[in-house]
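Thread: "does anyone have the structure for this chain?"

Original post by V.I.:
We have the sequence but no experimental structure in hand. Need at least a predicted one for the grant figures.
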Amino acid sequence: MCPSPSALQVDIFLLGLYITALGTGGYLPAFVAWGADQFDSEKTRTTFFGWLFVCQNIGTIVANTVFVWLQNKGEWELSFWLATGVGALATLAFGVGVPTYRQYAPGGNSFVRTAQVIIASVRKWWIEVPRDADELHELPTIELIRQGSRKMPHTPRFRFLDKAATRVPGEFEKPWKLCNVTQVEELKCLFRMLPIWLCAIPFAAVFSQINTLFVEQAAVMDLQLGNIKIPPASLNLVNVMTIFVCTLLYAPVVVPIARAITGRPTGLTQLQRLGCGQIGVAIAMGLAALVESRRLSLARQGKQMSVFWLSPQHIVLGISQVFAVVGAMDFFYSEAPHAMKGLVSSLSLANLAIGSFLSTVLVSITMHFTTRDGSPGWIPPRNLNVGHVDYFYWLLMCITLLNVAAFGLGCRWYRRCAPTPESQTNGSHTENVKPYF
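Reply from O.Q.:
Generated one for you, tokens below.
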């Protein structure tokens, strides 16, 4: 029997977890944008995002096999040292390749650029925006490039923000009072992507069940594989292997089929991939609810259901991730203004964190309303056999379907900002009104 840890030991352990989270949050968004910067064509960037996701899941395979096996043997210290060694080797490998990488000079703080537009707009709330967009303040192209940006055409949406680029007689060109059109359009671009990003959060909340309820569900099922009793968390390997196989098959199989249907060179747009992923999540939750309903029926008869009946929901969820996660990384990078690639790329990762918090909130609300009058609730903490996790899965499926509808509306509203032929000939700036879906 191991002695209980001291308060200091617990604090050191938690500090290590927080440092790990801080490090991951610091490098991963930058790595996504930096990696995509190494490629010029959309096809090669999409391939990079796919292989990045595959490599992340290969790491998950190692974590769910080698490290879980060591930890089940009680070798926690060894597993932590191995993880440290792997991280050190990865850092060394990255450092060796630094001289060969394509690197761009930093172009300033994206948060500051955004704040300048908002504050300048509020300061000049009383002025009228000129009808002619050419009267708005803009910098020469060479100056924008020097600042790490690229010239963007004016668009008519969110006209209030145009006040930031409107000149006032006698006003000095100070960054917190007068912004350029490109700077304003960068913020408009963020606002246009906001509905798409918000719709990705419920997806992340549902996906987080794979590490929580799916594991608890597996723990009360028959875990025997011949003479071996597998750990409940190891079933995540089904999900990971599905992601690995589907990523390999996407370009040679899915793209040609989709190209024949849509007529697009890439088969599906990034938003269409996101939509397919969201629909897949709803299907996965429906399968999870059906399996759990059957498991409860058998459990109340004193029987156990094989844990491998959870495989279909893991497989469908894995396929959904290939569409949604890779599609999200590709979408946010491709649509981001040049000066905000890193910031916008982090949005596709931030929704995973927010989704985890949302999942916790959903579970808490569900337990609050289902544990009244002495009822064990849908998700009892000690014995799932007296609860109704299947009801919670049906609830998640309904939430996902509503989210799919909201996502469709967001896609119809979304517009890409791009120069039109007229803008290149006579200097006028208009918005490309073709929906990107």
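V.I.: this helps a lot. The first helix runs from residue 7 to 37.
O.Q.: and Confidence is low (pLDDT under 50) at residues 419-437.
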